[in-house]
Amino acid sequence: MTKISFEDLQLVENFGHSLSLPSYYFKLEGLDDVKPVLKIAREEGLTINVRGAGRSYNDAALNAGGIILDLQAVNHILEWQPEIGLIRCEPGVTLKQLWQHVLPAGWWPPVVSGTMTTTLGGCLGMNIHGKNNYKAGTIGEHVLEFTALLPTGAEVTCSPQKNGDLFRAMVGGLGMLGIFTSITLQMKRMYSGLLEVKAWNVPDMKVHLDDIDAHKEEADYIVGWMDCTARGRALGRGQLHQANYLPEGEDLDSARTLQVDYQTLPSKFFGLVPKSILHYFMSPFMNNPGTRMVNTAKFLVGRNKTFRQSHASFHFLLDYVPDWELSYGRQGLIQHQSFLPKDAALQTWTEMLALSHRCSLPAYLGVTKRHRPDAFLLSHAVNGYSLAMDFKITSGNRSQLAAMLQEFDNLVLQAGGRFYFAKNSETRPETALAFLGQETITKFRALKKRCDPENLLASDLYRRVFECA
Amino acid sequence: MPESTDISFQHSTPLDPGRKAILVGASSGIGAALAHQLADQGYSLALLARRIDMLNSLCDEINQKAGKPLARAYPHDVCDYDTVPALLQTILADLGGVDLFIYNSGISLPAGLKKFDFDKDRRTLEVNFLGALAWLNPVAAMFQSLESGQIVGISSVAGERGRVGNPSYNASKAALTSYLEALRNRLTRFGVHVLTVKPGFVDTSLLAGAKKTFWVIPAEQAARDIWKAIRNHKQDIYTPARWRWVMLIIRNIPSFIFRKMVF
Fold this sequence. Notes:
The structure holds two protein chains of two kinds. Helices cover about 30% and strands about 25% of the residues of chain A. Chain A is an alpha+beta fold. Chain A has two domains: about 75-190, Uridine Diphospho-n-acetylenolpyruvylglucosamine Reductase, domain 3 (2-Layer Sandwich), CATH 3.30.465; about 195-255 and about 270-425, Alpha-Beta Plaits, CATH 3.30.70.2520. The radius of gyration of chain A is 22 Å and the shape is globular. The two termini of chain A are about 35 Å apart. By secondary structure, chain B is of the alpha/beta class. In chain B, α5 links the parallel β5 (about 150-155) and β6 (about 195-200). The radius of gyration of chain B is 18 Å and the shape is globular. The termini of chain B are far apart. The chains are: A alpha+beta, B alpha/beta. The interface between A and B is medium-sized, with 37 and 28 residues.
């Protein structure tokens, strides 16, 4: 590629199917092509956003009117040391590639998202967390080293010890400081391809949060489903799942359970219905009464049980029904995820859920997790909980939903909470300033100026939140 | 409010994706009226014209009325053909997308009934047709790639017959009408909508000094008709609508009669 042409334009969509914006789209075959693209962007006065799998719900992987550099094909595993669980990958390697590569040798990625389709570059740019955030921290805490190409043309190597400031800013830096070229991660030792899973119902918000907290020491993973349509005394009810690794020797069939084939998610529901068409059957229930009915049924049939489940089945719930997000209809969905300090969560989320009911805009899916703070610059984590809520967008509810989410943000800020840039679409510059603080933003800007003095890297998320702040 | 050439447009978000339009030839007449009409509909507007003072006042007026930055001025001479692709690229990045493109630039420089003036004719063709080509080609390429978008060309009833009074104006509008039809035939299959607008007599500077005018409508009325056609995805409209029937007759007047008519 030597020149930009209008014929390279494509409408690029976010994961929530709620926004599609035009960009000059380039799918790179190798990292050698990055520098020529930087040169073109410089000459044409355009910005570049590096995109992986595009699994952000919001505008993090969009760049309206600029260049999108798709690194999905830059997906080679460069080095794997199975004896010590160390792996070095290109940024386009997906979590699926990663776990499938390491599991047969008895390892598992220490932190994974709810989908395995995400790329490591994207995971690092957003500093993803998993259902074990309170114990394992974010993915950045397991990165031993990464190399990156800065827009200045400089190639840097960063680790917690070397270029530490840049390390802690680029991890979770929204891809705005440089382009990851290789990532070295420490995997976690596994003695089985199975997890010991315990599921139980929780009748209200208080028990929901208290139980998460009470089990966090013993559980390797813990995650909650919240029925956001439930009201009154049942407000905040749901179901918790905790999972634990099996100790060495516990799984007598580990040679089999550690194989990739054993982990593969079934392609049919009840062995009959192809999962690829399931979202069509979900669509009719994607309304207030439909979701309330389904959620109530899910809660009522929920039983306390203990069972063993494969890693892939436990972790990658979002992959269980392919294209589930399409069930939200043509206008797509929006996710609001708030992170609240331990003592503020109960009251704030009670208020938020009550508000959503007053507005007749309940979330159709609510997911809770437990977190711990981390040292990354644009950190979203707190010592407390997070609640991610999915809302359906309709042609008639946009402004009311926007007003409600603004009120949510106000409540979260008042309670000392934070937000996650991979999820929320409506975070305003003043909100980011309030939870990150002026010092953090100034530091981020200074690094941006140092790494990318010409502002070549940009995304719609960056423009929305940081260029105006 | 910042200077109208230095405005940052509102960002698209899932809950407020916004609609975006480029309007070439926006400073007065139908263009200015259309800018107001589109701003009332919530469009973010990149407004282009040569006369920067008029463009600035128009942007200020729109932005003050809206209470937020909706319109930004881009000084541009449509005869600077070579600058168009880069300018379109810049506007696309500034607006964050384009849903609607309108080419409205047009001049009429009648030479006189018995006179011929190549300079005036060339200028007319340059503004009315070549300028349109310079814009419509890259815009068509853009919308074709995106498989969405609306193109509006403001042609004229004058493009339907060659008259004694203003041959080059007739020719320029005939060429524009024909080009827009070809674009429509090319782009419909890509999901792109092309609208040809044929105004009759509209009360704008183009009409200044014109004789024998009738059914003159204000620019605002033309803009309302055009907006309706954009909204309803029409292929071509006359404004006011009765010109469709008048032109049906005029188009069918036999040449041996038409060449004796003086208008």
